[in-house]
Amino acid sequence: MRLFNKVAIVGTGLIGGSIALAIKKKGLAKEVIGVSRHKKTLLIARRTHAIDKGSQDINIIKDADLVVLATPVDTILNLAPKVGRLIRRDCIVTDVGSTKREIVSRLTRIFPFYVGAHPMAGSQNRGMLHADPGIFKNSLCILTPVRNTDKKAQGKVRKLWLSLGAEVICLSPDEHDKILSFVSHLQHIAAFSLMEVVPRQYLQFAAGGFRDTTRIAASESEIWSDIFLSNRKNIIKSIEVLQLGLNKIKSAINKKDKKLLDKILKRAKLRRDSLDL
Amino acid sequence: MRLFNKVAIVGTGLIGGSIALAIKKKGLAKEVIGVSRHKKTLLIARRTHAIDKGSQDINIIKDADLVVLATPVDTILNLAPKVGRLIRRDCIVTDVGSTKREIVSRLTRIFPFYVGAHPMAGSQNRGMLHADPGIFKNSLCILTPVRNTDKKAQGKVRKLWLSLGAEVICLSPDEHDKILSFVSHLQHIAAFSLMEVVPRQYLQFAAGGFRDTTRIAASESEIWSDIFLSNRKNIIKSIEVLQLGLNKIKSAINKKDKKLLDKILKRAKLRRDSLDL
C-alpha cells in the first residue's frame, strides 16, 4: 500500500535506516531518499536497498512529500529552519526524537504539516549497519499532536507507523516527556551512573545482572546528553525521585529493618513480575 | 571423574539443583542426596535425576563426605550449628552464599573442613524447576579461604567447581563482600529502586531499556533482603557512591554543562564497551 510518493530520511542511522528499509520492504513509498553526513553510511544504505538515492547535501529532499527527521535531538532542532526553507509547502514532516516538548514547539511553528513522533524501538547500537526493518514490530510509537496539528497529516503519519508494525498512541508533548523521563531517561541515567561509580578493577567480577542493568550505558553518549538536556526539568525530578527511593532502601538496611526492607523489595518484585516485557 | 562419594545438597533450589544436576551428569559423586523444606521440590529433583534420594529431614546428610549449603544466606547461618552436630568429622562443607564475611567467620568455627564459595551464576528465576547443569559453564566461582582453611578441602572444592565448568578465583571474604557490593548488590538495589519509584500508570510505556535495567528486580525479595542486611556496611557505602554519581550527572544537567555531561557519559560508555559480557 503506497502512502507516499517520495520519502526523505534525514539521518540514516539505526532508526532512520530501519524506517527506510521497512518503507522499501513494504512498498509504502515510490522512492526513498537518504541524507547523511557520512558518505559511508549512504553507501551502506544504498547497498542494502534502504534508499534509492542518497546525498550529503540536504537539498536532495526538496520535492519529497514526507520528510522524516531522524538525527539526534539537537540536530533536529538545528536543521529544521533549513529544511523549512527547502521543502514543498504541502510536505508532511515528522521526526523520531526522544524528547518532544522542545521539538514539537519549534517544529510546529516552522512546518504547517508537522507531526511529532517517538518510536520506542532501537537498542544501544547505532548506525545504518545495525538497521533492521523489523525493529518496529510490536513496538510502541508515540505521536504527540498539538492543537494546531493538521489532522490529515497526523492520519498519514499514524498509518505509516501502523504499517511498520508499531502500536500507535497519542500523548501531549509534555505528558510524553514526563513519562519518558521515568521509563527511559532515568534508566539510562542509572546505567551510566552505575558504570561511572564501579571501581575499574572490580569490573572483572561483573556477571549477568551487571550486564543487563548496564547494557544501555553503551548507548551513544552524545545522543543521550542531548536528550537529558532537552528534557532537563523532568529528568532532574525523576533523578530526585530515584534518590529518595535509594534513601528509603538505604535507611531500611541501616536500621536492619528486615520487615520494611522485605516490603519494599517485594513490592518492586511484584511490579516487575507484572510487566509484560 | 569421581571426586566424592556422597554429596548432600541442602536447599535444592536454582543453584543447589543446578549443582546436583551437574554433579550427576558429570559423575562427580557416587550418590547425590537433597534436602528441601518442600516435598514438591524433592519430587522434581528426583524426577529430573538431580538427586538419588531426597528428604525434608536434614538427618539424611549424616554420612555425606561433601555438604553444599545452598539455601538463602540467613538459612545457611541458622542451619550451620545443626549440620555441624550431624555430619562426619571429616566431611567437607561448602556453601554458595552471596555474601561471605559473616558466613565464613561463623562456619569456619563450626566445620573443620569448611571452604566458602560463591558461584556467580543464576538469574532472577528461582527454584528446582529452573535448575540447569549448564549455568556454571564460563561463569566465575569465587572461593573465600581464610588462614585456617584446610588446603586439601580447598583443593577438592576447587576441583568440583572447575569440573562444573567455572573459572575459580580466591578472594578474602572481606574483599569478596566489598567487590560484590559494587558489581552485584548495588545493581540489585538500583533495579529494585527503579521499580519502586516509577509511577505505575507509566509502566505501560516501558520498552527494552527498561526491561533489561530492571530484570533483576524480579529476583526473590527475601533472598535479597538477607544479602543486603548481611553485607550492610559495604552496601551502604556503595549506595552512597551511586548517589554521588547521580548527583554529578544531575548537577551537569542542571547547569546545562553539555561538555561535562558528554565527558561523564562518554567515560561510562567506554567502560561498558570494554566489558566482555
Q: Order of strands side by side in the largest beta sheet of chain A?
A: 3-2-1-4-5-6
Structural class of chain A, please?
alpha/beta
Number of domains of chain A: 2
The unreliable regions of chain A are none
- Reported by name, the CATH topology of the largest domain in chain A is Rossmann fold
Q: How many helix segments of chain A?
A: 10
What is the CATH class name of the largest domain in chain A? Alpha Beta
Question: How is this fold's topology laid out?
Answer:
2 copies of one chain form a homodimer.
Chain A: E1 4-10, H1 14-26, E2 29-35, H2 39-47, E3 53-55, E4 66-69, H3 73-86, E5 92-95, H4 101-110, E6 114-115, E7 117-120, E8 140-143, H5 151-163, E9 167-170, H6 173-197, H7 208-213, H8 221-230, H9 232-254, H10 258-274
Index terms:
six-stranded parallel beta sheet, 14% strand, 6-phosphogluconate dehydrogenase C-terminal fold, homodimer, 277 residues, alpha/beta, 51% helix, 10 helices, 2 domains, Rossmann fold, three-stranded mixed beta sheet
How is this structure best summarized?
Chain A has two domains: 4-171, NAD(P)-binding Rossmann-like Domain (Rossmann fold, 3-Layer(aba) Sandwich); 175-274, 6-phosphogluconate dehydrogenase C-terminal fold. Helix content of chain A is 51%, strand content 14%.
